[in-house]
Amino acid sequence: MGALGATGEVVASGTALAGLMLIYIGIQVTNYGSYTATERKTVKPKFLLRASLAAIGVASALIAAALGLIAKTLNNQCLAGWAVSVAVVAFVWTILVAVANVREIK
Q1: Radius of gyration, CA atoms only, the chain
Q2: Range of the domain at 97
Q3: How far apart are CA 6 and CA 79, in angstroms?
Q4: Number of separate domains in the chain
Q5: CA–CA separation, 84 vs 63, rounded Å?
Q6: Segment holding 30, helix H or strand E
Q7: What is the pTM of this model?
Q8: In angstroms, rounded to a whole number, what is the distance separating the alpha carbons of residues 52 and 35?
Q9: Angle subtended at Cα 26 by Cα 10 and Cα 33, rounded to the nearest 5 degrees
Q10: Would you write out the chain's pLDDT as a tens digit for each of its 106 residues?
């Protein structure tokens, strides 16, 4: 199966991954909101970094899904290859974000 044959999977996995990352961002926002106003000043950079890194994951996953949809619609093998490549980047990015968060546990 070539890249064009995988576009359906790219679209499905890209949107699912984006949804998971959005849930993660929501958890970060909720956790940040649980701090008092004084404490928020101290923890804001950490939460902002986490949410920003996750937002990059969301964007790359949705870009992969969009490229997959366009490639399938236009029957474009080159665009399908890009969709698969961006999807791989999104998955690797998600793993890196997860590992970075686990490493923060002391």
Answers
A1: 17
A2: 4-103
A3: 12
A4: 1
A5: 10
A6: helix 7-33
A7: 0.89
A8: 19
A9: 165
A10: 688 888 999 999 999 999 999 999 999 999 999 999 999 999 999 999 999 999 999 999 999 999 999 999 999 999 999 999 999 999 999 999 999 989 988 7
